[in-house]
Amino acid sequence: MEHVGVPRQEELLKIDKMPLSIVLPTYNESQNIARLLDSIAETLPADTAAEIIVVDDNSPDGTGDIANQHAKNSGNKKLHIEVISRPDKQGLSSAILAGVQSAAGEIVVVMDGDFSHPPQTIPHMVEELQDSKYDIVVASRYVKGGSVMGWPFKRRLMSKGATKIAQVGLGIEVKDPMSGFFAFRRRIIEGVKFDAIGYKMLLEILVKAKGVRVKEVPYTFTNRAAGASKLNSSVVFDYFRAVWKLYRYGRSLGQGEKRASVRFLSKAGRFYTIGAMGLLVNYAVATLFGSLLPGLWYLYAALAGIIFSVTSNFILNKLWTFEDRDFAASKTLMQYTLFTGFSAPGAVIQLSMLYSLHGSQLISYPIALILAVMVAAVGNFLLNKKWTFREKIWS
Predict the structure, then answer these.
(1) What is the pTM of this model?
(2) Between the CA atoms of 222, 223, 228 and 233, what dihedral angle is there, to the nearest 10 degrees?
(3) Are 279 and 316 in contact (CB under 8 A)?
């Protein structure tokens, strides 16, 4: 890992004690980085001593070189720019972690490098930390006054689904735990060991930094105008892997619940969280089959999506919801048969509703699919809890 640009952290501390560090992870942001650095500089009050740490994962488009040149030409004596050039693409969370570890500030702000996070929100976030009892300030899309601009329906659905998975699966009460735009007091992460898996470091902080006080402030997320989105299948996989590790982390601390009502609701929440994930699998597989085989009837594509989603739902529910680690062949086959059998009526309902709603052109396919899956899910939890995994209903 190479540090280039303005003086490194130990030199910054000699110059001035940095009250504020802004961490910008970048990859292929050559069209945005110079303008973003200028925008941040213009936004911060003139008397604010701050540093911007650009962590670039060896961007093929020269983002790191542009940031380094910008740092050398900066005439702002109160704003220092440091560029950390990493040898290869190691992931967003690890880039943020590298920037945080290099930061000299008492307050650290994390944001994206594509203008989806408005620099004008930074002073408000910092002020909230300086003048209040809070340890973390999250710029939120989902509190009153917050919004999202420029996202298609599928991206909104994925974001809401990921948010619900974090809230239910990890017990997080923050409305936008998936935000990549947040500020925190550096001291709250002292002694915290980060895994840096996935693309949302805020989740790790919320789970592992115990007792922190969080405030959410609204902002408008604007979809990037330049460059390409980093969201792909590997990012989605890493997110689920990160949530699983964080869930196991909480379990390793001995976090248990003796109240039957809470255990029941927790398992129901996990079951329907996996159902939401299955909806994404269902939609993705059905869409894939429809695109690869354009002559295929949409109900056949939907059936393929059902088969894949039922299988993935079974495995995840066995491991997570009902915490059954016994994968003996005969037992697992019997459970899968029962799970599939209980899912079959729901599949019939789903296909029937799809045919009625979408086939008659009443509503679009994605909306019809969501409504059909929601209706089909009724009763599945109780049937599988009682008969597939042999648990008492109220436990």
Answers:
(1) 0.64
(2) 120
(3) no
Show Cβ contacts of residue 178 under 8 Å, excluding neighbours closer than 6 positions: 159, 162, 163, 166, 200, 202, 203
Say which residue the tokens 């919801």 belong to.
321
Contact by Cβ (8 Å): 37, 79:
no
CA distance 207 to 224: 29
Would you give the end-to-end CA distance of the chain in angstroms?
51
Helix (H) / strand (E) element for 309: namely helix 298-316
Q: Using the CB atoms, write b or e for 308-343: b if 16+ within 10 Å.
A: bbbbbbbebbbebbbebeeeeeeeeeebbebbeebb
Domains of the chain: 2-246 (3.90.550.10), 257-388 (no CATH)
Of 217, 223, 27, which is closest to residue 109 (Cα–Cα)? 217
DSSP per residue, 52-85: EEEEE---TT-HHHHHHHHHHH---TTEEEEEEE
Give the bridge partners for 24, in sequence order. Answer: 54
Q: HSE-up of 328 (CA within 13 Å, CB side)?
A: 4
| pLDDT tens, the chain, 395 aa long | 555 444 444 444 433 455 899 999 999 999 999 999 999 999 998 778 899 999 999 899 999 999 999 888 876 667 889 999 998 877 788 899 999 999 999 999 999 988 999 999 999 999 999 878 899 999 999 999 999 998 888 888 888 888 888 887 788 889 999 999 999 999 999 988 888 776 678 999 998 988 899 999 999 998 866 655 656 667 777 787 888 788 777 766 655 554 465 577 778 888 888 887 887 888 888 888 878 877 777 678 878 888 888 899 999 999 988 889 899 999 999 999 999 888 777 667 766 766 777 666 667 766 776 666 666 665 678 788 888 888 887 76
Q: Which two tokens stand for residue 284?
A: 């993705």
